Amino acid sequence: MITTDNRDETKDRILDAALKRFIHFGAGKTTMNEIAEDLRCSKASLYYYFPDKQGLHLAVLEKISEHLFQTMEERLVEMKKATDTLLDFIAIKYEFGCKFFRLEIFKLIQEKKMITPQQFRAFRDREHKLFTRIFEFGNDQGEFHLKRPATEIASLYQDVLEGVRYVASDGLPVIEIPNEDFFAKIVAKQRAIAQIFINGLKYKD
Amino acid sequence: MITTDNRDETKDRILDAALKRFIHFGAGKTTMNEIAEDLRCSKASLYYYFPDKQGLHLAVLEKISEHLFQTMEERLVEMKKATDTLLDFIAIKYEFGCKFFRLEIFKLIQEKKMITPQQFRAFRDREHKLFTRIFEFGNDQGEFHLKRPATEIASLYQDVLEGVRYVASDGLPVIEIPNEDFFAKIVAKQRAIAQIFINGLKYKD
């Protein structure tokens, strides 16, 4: 008899196997067959859990973004200085982006196919709550001197960091899929901008 | 005999008439016929200067962006505080954007038809020089304490302000043509971000 625990465990094993394949060979090039072979299970049992590759791909993305949020939330618990946590978050997201480049997340977001604007918004809202807590913490500790509510600062911060992703050096929006080099360039810019933004919050009139 | 002076004068009169029409009725809805009527000249003489509406439209845009730059450059000459000039520039560009909304600049930029990436880059480069001078001035006067070269700060500042234009509240790039309300919302965000960015430059470790 398959219990809920068993089912969750099998699902997790499938997600891990798919993730490994996706990272090594790219999500587009991986077949359901290959994943079944890696797991030494029949295609039928794989399809029982994930009727198609798109569903599996999405489940993998959900799992790793859950992991990303957990990492960020843990960092929040042990926060001592808001500045350090903000810069940590950029590093964590960069690492996440590099590791999972082959999961074709950027492609999916831009195609607006599998990842809907609603899902994207949910991601942003969750991140917004984390940033709000960091800015509040920094203000309470006297590290920042906020002239606007922390929730508004968090939105502006998100807009600023997200915004540079779409601005190429000629200022036209980049809607192409970024390659590794371009991604690294964007993150370097985010870091420089975050530093100025953070100093702006430290500034006391 | 048509002298160069005469020709320039006639061209200018045509551009002024076209601009008036464009602002009132929109560039798309204006015909070459209507412009000729406003000028009380024959269509033939209008077409002598501008063989098609697209060329006329582009010439109008060049004229008004030249005017925008001249306004900004004059402001630079009388600069007393870098902060004031930076905030002035946002106001000047907003006024420019509102006044010339019907010139369908945003549409042209996004369609990448009439305004090429090269032209866009030239615009950005010229603006970059102005910003660099403001940041240098602020640093020289002790108003700012730059931790990076003024030219790099200027690029980051441009990226930040341009970037928010493409970030909707859900973080997906907005490639639709902004309406008046959306435009006002973006500029309010730019103002808030500019203030934090500027304070970041004032901050002394």
UniProtKB/TrEMBL annotation, chains A, B:
Protein name: HTH tetR-type domain-containing protein
Cross-referenced PROSITE patterns: HTH_TETR_2
Stored Pfam families: TetR_N
Gene3D superfamilies according to UniProt: Homeodomain-like, Tetracycline Repressor, domain 2
Start-end of DNA-binding region: 31-50
GO molecular function: DNA-binding transcription factor activity; transcription cis-regulatory region binding
Keywords: DNA-binding, Transcription, Transcription regulation
Span of domain HTH tetR-type: 8-68
